[in-house]
Amino acid sequence: MKYNHIIYTGHSDWVELKLNRPQVYNALNRELLAELLDAFTTIETNDEIRCVLLTGEGKAFSSGQDLKAVGVDLKQVPFEEIVTQQYNPLILKMRSLHKPIICKLNGVAAGAGCSLALAADIIVASDDAYMAEIFTSIGLVMDAGSTYFLPRILGSSKAFEIATMGTKIYGKEAMALGLVNESVPELELDSTVLKYIAYYRTAPTYAIGLIKEMLGRSLSMPLADVLLMEAQYQNKAGSTLDFQEGVAAFLQKRKPNFKGK
Predict the structure, then answer these.
(1) Beta-strand pair 109-110/101-105
(2) What's the pLDDT tens digit per position in 33-49?
(3) Which structural domains are found in the chain, ordered by start?
(4) Longest dimension (CA), the chain
(5) 148, exposed or middle or buried, with CB in 10 Å at 0-12, 13-18, 19+?
(6) All residues at 6 or more sequence positions from 83 whose CB lies less than 8 Å from its CB, including other chains
(7) How far apart are the C-alpha atoms of 58 and 83, rounded to whole Å?
(8) Would you call 126 helix, strand, or coil by DSSP?
(9) Chain centroid to CA 237: how far?
(10) Helix (H) or strand (E) holding 110
(11) How far apart are CA 87 and CA 89, in angstroms?
(12) pTM higher than 0.85
C-alpha cells in the first residue's frame, strides 16, 4: 500500500510511524486509519523489527476523528460502521502486536486520537502536550478503546470525570495519573524517546511480546488462571535462544546480546 497520510520510516531494527495530516492536526479519516493498520500488519510479520515509534507530524499528535469525513447529513452518520470497520481493527492490531509500541506525544491527543495514544505500550509526552476525551463536547461517547483503557489506568471515578467533562490532562498531570510514562520539556522529548527505543531494540522481544499479551489477558482472569498462564508462557519463553543467551551472559558476567528469538 502506498502511504499518503502517514510517514513510514524504517530503521535497522525499528520503525517510526508518523501521522501526516498536520494541516488538520492529524485528524483521523478512513485513509489514514487504513494506512496505519497496513503498516502495523507489515511490522507484525517482519522479525527484524523489534519496536515501533508512533507520533504525529507538526504540532499535534492527533485531534481525533475528522468530522468533515463523516458526511454532511448528521442524521445518517454510520457510527457503528466507522467504529467497527475503521478503528476497532487498528486498536486490536496494536494491542496484539508482540512488539513494543512507543508513543511520542508531541501535542494534543483528543477524542479518538487519545484512544490511539492509549493503545500504545509506552507514552512519552511533552510537558505542553495534553490528552482529552472530548466526545461529550459533541454529545457522543468514547470509542476506539478509551472505555477499556481509562478505568484500568485511572479507576472508575477518575475515568468518569475525565470522560464526561472532557478535561485536558497535560503532561505532568498525565504522568502523575499514570496516563503517560514520562513527561519532559519539549526540547528533551526526542532524546527521551530514543532511550526507550535503544532499550527495546536490543531487548528479548519474544519474551516482551508474551508479557504484553499476559498483562492484557490477566485483567479479566482470576488468580488461579493467571498462575496457570504464567507457567505456560514461561515454558514458551524458556524455549527461546534469548533465554539461553541471557543465562550465558549472566554466568559470564557480560551484557546479553538478545536477538528477539
Answers:
(1) unpaired
(2) 999 999 999 999 999 99
(3) 6-201 (3.90.226.10), 205-252 (1.10.12)
(4) 68
(5) middle
(6) 143, 144
(7) 26
(8) strand
(9) 23
(10) strand 109-110
(11) 6
(12) yes
